[in-house]
Write a structure and sequence with these properties.
This protein has 13 helices and five strands. By secondary structure, the protein is an alpha/beta fold. A hairpin with a 4-residue loop joins strand 4 and strand 5.
Length: 333
């Protein structure tokens, strides 16, 4: 059985202590029935903007110190939600954090991780599971909810190997998680209802990475892109300027646009490739503007981590080639 957890605050995904902990729990997690093979949780932090956030070396060019991350973004105001995809045997839970503020979540990093913090995260994961399973699982479903929750409650992974640094245990669990995912069909790991995308889209975007919602260099893998794709109905009819305003900042302000340069590119990417995925085409003006921003991004390649630069260069060139096909597309044909 698979178990994953991610944090969300403002528009930042993947932060907080819940993900590392879920990886540790999953290592020995058995099955509790055939109805559920995977549970994914998003623990969110409602709160007040702005939130000061630091970024790893290499990102300062996009979000300079003092005007970083969600400075212009409104806070979250979510309610708990659960979705049970019975055919896929997947349960998705969106649940609030009661113990962590947006600042706590954004500033959580491996070097500052402690067993005490992960113990609090375990309490919240258990609360999310109890609520989500209680809302979604029916008596007819082949899943032993009580046994599963008891197993999670009794998990003592943070209380063993006390002589070892916690970071070693976390990285070890992450490596196991990575090996398991790498052995699976990457297309099957995507949470996509193909009946809701254009039949030509997968021909144009024929790599699983094109559909990833976790690869930062993919059209909908950034925090900005993931938000737009997840709420496509709200964003699909907006211009890039409208999207920026909806996300809390004004692209017409040169100062804000300069600070949010990376987000501006991500907005264009998400809209352009969202159109491709939904319609099989992209409007010429949007295709041209996105192509131009991708070209301009080469100016900042020195600020991309060397470990990721080759991947970004390959994706950028490929996405430019795809967009080029629509720059001169005639809507009257």
């Amino acid at each position: 059985m698979e178990l994953s957890a991610s944090g969300k605050t403002n528009r930042c995904y993947g932060c907080g202590p819940w993900g590392p902990l879920a990886n540790m729990i999953e290592v020995d997690l058995p099955d509790f029935g055939t109805a559920i093979r995977r549970i994914s949780m998003t623990i969110y932090c409602n709160g007040h903007a702005p939130v000061f956030q630091t970024y790893p070396e290499g990102f300062e060019i996009w979000r300079p110190e003092g005007m970083i991350g969600p400075t212009y973004f409104p806070p979250l105001n979510y309610s708990p939600k659960v979705r049970f995809l019975r055919k896929k045997r997947e349960l998705e839970i969106l649940y609030p954090s009661e113990h962590f503020s947006p600042a706590d979540t954004n500033n959580f990093h491996y070097p500052t991780m402690t067993r005490e913090v992960l113990s609090i995260a375990k309490v919240e994961i258990l609360q999310a599971l109890e609520w989500g399973l209680g809302q979604a699982v029916k008596k007819k479903d082949d899943f032993d909810t009580n046994a599963f929750l008891k197993w999670i409650e009794n998990w003592r992974g943070l209380e063993v190997d006390l002589h070892r640094p916690l970071i070693d245990l976390v990285l070890e669990a992450h490596e196991i998680w990575m090996r398991r995912r790498q052995s699976a069909d990457p297309w099957l790991l995507l949470d996509i209802d193909w009946s809701r995308v254009h039949p030509d889209a997968r021909k144009l975007l024929d790599s699983p990475d094109d559909w990833s919602q976790s690869n930062d260099f993919s059209p909908h893998g950034s925090d900005t892109g993931a938000d737009i794709w997840a709420d496509w109905r709200s964003y699909s009819r907006l211009t890039p300027q409208g999207v920026a305003l909806k996300m809390g900042w004004n692209a017409g302000d040169p100062e804000q646009l300069d600070v949010m340069r990376r987000d501006w590119l991500e907005i264009h990417m998400a809209l352009a490739f969202g159109q491709l995925k939904k319609k099989g085409i992209c409007s010429p003006d949007l295709a041209e503007a996105t192509h131009r921003l991708l070209e301009e991004s080469r100016e900042y390649d020195d600020f991309i981590s060397p470990d990721h630069l080759a991947d970004w260069e390959a994706k950028r060139s490929r996405y430019q080639r795809i967009l080029q096909e629509f720059v001169s597309w005639d809507s009257t044909q």
